[in-house]
């Protein structure tokens, strides 16, 4: 992960530089400041080098403890507005970049980390038909940029369960789906992801009601993320995360084995290829 030291590099880097400057001016170590604002010293250090994105509540506490008259809250707003992702999803993207493992279930769409450009473009165009093409292209670029996570030497172990509906819904038409299904097969072949498919024949299963992303970390408790229409929710309550993990395990038990899942994806690609001819 790139570490940003130049304050002019981005609003996030500026926030980190200001945090370090004002912390040192107050004569506080990272650990001491962390205790005062109810987070770890390591979290303070990660914000100072722009690895972790600052949060609104924490910015308010920093202003109170360091007596900075709303400075951090104002810079936080700059950081928030500069994000390439929607507010409700930006923190989830950040956590994915630090996760040891990511376990994801999607009932309707190919997850963002696995989307081919044409597939992502078709989704954005369908969501807001009147949005300018240039704006759509910016959003496609932001989504494709997330691929870098899977190319890192320390990439997380990424396990995905797809409902069969994901394979059967012709997002963007047959030719787009040929490329998307082929992209999934390539990722499987390159050992970037392990994919299982829950077939229609499995009937009801534990995650039929919605999407789920589970993340584990080296030095933090596991977290779950669920999303809906223009909203998302991070879950860190241990009891709820355990329930989500159990539901994921049950859905995994209902899914086809990886080789059979790959065969179903390849078959779907062939069906779309026939339809596009």
Can you characterise this structure?
With 277 residues, this protein is α/β, with parallel strands linked by helices. It has 2 domains: 11-82, 434 Repressor (Amino-terminal Domain) (Orthogonal Bundle); 87-276, 2-Layer Sandwich (Endonuclease, Chain A). 55% of the residues lie in helices and 12% in strands. A 6-stranded mixed beta sheet has the order 3-2-1-4-5-6, with helices on both faces. Strand 4 (212-216) and strand 5 (223-228) form a beta hairpin. It starts with 10 loop residues before the first helix and ends with a helix.
Write a compact overview of the structure shown.
The protein has 277 residues and is of the alpha/beta class.
CATH class of the largest domain: Alpha Beta
- Tell me about the biggest sheet? 6 strands, mixed
- C-alpha Rg (nearest Å): 21 Å
Taking strands numbered 1, 2, ... along the chain, how are they ordered across the largest sheet? 3-2-1-4-5-6
Range of helix content = 40-55%
Give the N-terminus to C-terminus distance in angstroms: 43 Å
Mean pLDDT: 90
Q: Could you say what the CATH topology of the largest domain is called?
A: Endonuclease, Chain A
Question: Layout of SSEs?
Answer:
Blueprint: H1 11-25, H2 30-37, H3 41-48, H4 56-66, H5 71-82, H6 87-98, E1 101-106, H7 117-127, H8 133-145, H9 148-151, E2 157-163, H10 164-168, H11 174-189, E3 194-198, E4 212-216, E5 223-228, E6 231-235, H12 238-254, H13 258-276
Parallel strand pairs: 1-2, 2-3
Antiparallel strand pairs: 1-4, 4-5, 5-6
Helix pairs in contact: 1-3, 1-5, 2-3, 4-5, 7-8, 11-13
């Amino acid at each position: 992960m790139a570490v940003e030291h130049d304050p002019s590099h981005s609003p996030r880097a500026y926030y980190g530089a200001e945090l370090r400057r004002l912390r040192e001016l107050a004569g506080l170590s990272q650990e001491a400041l962390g205790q005062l604002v109810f987070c770890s010293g390591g979290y303070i250090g990660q914000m100072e080098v722009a690895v972790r994105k600052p949060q609104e509540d924490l910015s308010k506490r920093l202003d109170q403890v360091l007596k900075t008259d709303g400075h951090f809250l104002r810079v936080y707003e700059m950081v928030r507005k500069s994000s390439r992702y929607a507010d409700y999803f930006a923190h989830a993207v950040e956590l994915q970049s630090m996760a040891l493992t990511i376990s994801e279930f999607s009932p309707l769409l190919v997850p963002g980390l696995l989307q081919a450009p044409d597939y992502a473009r078709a989704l954005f165009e369908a969501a807001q038909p009147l949005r300018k093409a240039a704006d759509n292209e910016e959003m496609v670029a932001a989504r494709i940029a997330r691929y870098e996570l899977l190319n890192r030497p320390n990439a997380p172990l990424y396990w995905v369960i797809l409902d069969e509906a994901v394979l059967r819904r012709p997002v963007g038409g047959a030719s787009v789906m040929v490329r998307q299904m082929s992209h999934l097969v390539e990722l499987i072949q390159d050992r970037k992801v392990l994919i299982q498919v829950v077939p229609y024949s499995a009937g009801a299963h534990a995650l039929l009601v919605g999407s789920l992303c589970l993340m584990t970390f080296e030095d933090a408790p596991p977290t779950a993320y669920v999303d809906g229409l223009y909203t998302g929710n991070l879950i860190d309550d241990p009891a709820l995360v355990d329930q989500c993990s159990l539901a994921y395990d049950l859905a995994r038990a209902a899914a086809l084995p990886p080789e059979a899942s790959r065969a179903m994806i390849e078959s779907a690609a062939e069906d779309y290829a026939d339809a596009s001819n």
